[in-house]
Amino acid sequence: MAGRPEKVLFLIGFTLLCLKTVISSTTAPEIPTIDQAYSKISNSITVEWTTVPGATGYLLTAEDGDTIIETTVASSPGTVTGLKAATLYQITIRSISASGRSQASSPKQAKTVLAAPVLEVGSPSPDSIFVRWDAVYMAIGFSVSVMRANGLGRIWKENTTNTSLTFSSLEAGTLYTIKAYAWNANGIPGDDSTCNLRTMACAPGRVTIQEDPPGHLSVAWSNVELGDYYVAFVKSDDGLEVHCNTSLTQCHFLSECGFTYFISVFAYNKAGQSPLGDVFNYTTAPCCPSDISAVLVSSDRMEIAWSPVRGAELYETKATAGFSVVECNDTAPACTLSALDCDTKYNITVYSFSEVRGSNLSCSSQYITTAPCSPEIKNISKDAFSTINVHWQSANEGATYTVTAQGKKGLFQCSSTGETCMIGGLPCGSVFSVTAVAETQVGKSLPSYSVPLETVPCCPAGLTVAQVTQSIINVSWTIGTVAQTYVTVLESHIGLSKCHTHQNHCLLGCIACGINYTVALKAISPTGLTADCAYQSYSSSACCPLGVKLYRLGPNGIRIHWQASRGSANYSTDLYGSKGIFTCVPRAGLSFCDVTDIPCGDVYTVMVSPVAETGLKLTFCPKKIYSVTCSGSTLGMVIYRGKKNDTVSPR
């Protein structure tokens, strides 16, 4: 029993020995020990460690809590790249061999240095350099140095907590190297930035801009030291840009009206472009309206319009004629000029205006003539044929005048280029309003003041003349339009007879028999206008015979005898009795007439009457009454002798 435990122990020891042998032949390499970890560049950390026997490589690991970055290196030292600047990292290392990787080493902390500032450099003047940069994370200060690029000469170095520096008293045209870096709270510098810059020429000064003549811009500037050549840029407010490259100090550009141009000038040398100087703006005069047209032209007013033009904020319209000036201002492209003189040629100019440039005084003008003046009717004369002659006064040049007479019975016109014209065919008994209008190529004048016109009353129709008695005639007619009274005149070489009445007939007395008269009729209106209506000849009847006597011709015959009146006339004799009417017409030239077979014992009315040329027997001559008895047979003239029974006695 005692030998059995020893045997067991022996077997256990042998087994452990074999296991150790197996394990030793497959064990990973040793764990490296980090000597130090440090950062010289802001995106990397360098690690140094003791070399592990049998290791063929090493795995470096950097961890910041958010990211893990690994890299494999062959030997110490090794560098982990791709890191963030100014960041604390946990650094570990593993050795690598054919049998595998070791466990991670104990960690060591290391912090990347600050990032390099990003520099912006410029040359504000020929002897200075301006350096600017953005703030750097975790930096508390910056160091900036300037030196010649060839390494010769002085080095300018400045420390600052700001983010910009200016180095002055440098040599113009020299290439300088600028280097800058930041440091942290521990004074550890970060990455540096390096750039080269040559001083450069200053921006040109004393820039002047002129526009002479309109449409041509001249840009001039002062000469710049170190400037090899110049470029002037001109950009219009519609976005179009042109430039001029010259070694001189002046450039010329074409310009257009109504634009604002932005002008900048740069100097150039081997260092490049000068800084931007002042930017000038120049506004050209607003454009002139070119399509001015007269919308309405009257005798005293003118409406004109045009298309809007570029650059104009206001339009000034001026009309001049001699010493007369009429103006209007408006923002709209139209204007109404009033209080103008008629038939006058005005010089019309429309000026465009802008607040910056003022008025464009180069705008052209044009002539527009106002409509003619209204004529003034001076006189209207009338004749007997329903015609009027209108006279007016006007000083229009080259005008045609139209005269219009308008009334209830129609419209009548006449035209003339002079100062008078005639209107005929006006109806009688009418009232008209007469106006005159002047017309030229420009237009028509306002009508003249109207003048009332009344035509003569209409003449009556059907004038009739009838003889009432030997010395009285009756003239009658129909009523005429508008006539209020009438005047009838009967005139001959021995005198006249006249009648004025408001009726349609008139009796005229004191007429001489056997005379040729002229009968005239005048119609008179209520206003006194007179129409000479009718003229006609009238011959009064022959005079009634005188001394009418009866003579007995046998038992049944009577001779009627009379004394003929002056002039030649035909007569007719009539005897009116209870037993009949007996008529006797003598031969021409005789002054008696015989009536036979007349019954006696009757009373007769005897009348001897002249017979008119028309055959009409006049009835106004005196009548005599005779008694014819049947006693006796005496021939010859019977005269009254008292109680003689054989006589024919007049009663």
TrEMBL record:
The keyword Signal applies. The keyword Cytoplasm does not apply. Residues 28-115, 116-205, 288-373 form the Fibronectin type-III domain. Residues 1-25 form the signal peptide. Keywords: Signal. PROSITE patterns: FN3. SUPFAM superfamilies: Fibronectin type III. This is Fibronectin type III domain containing 7.
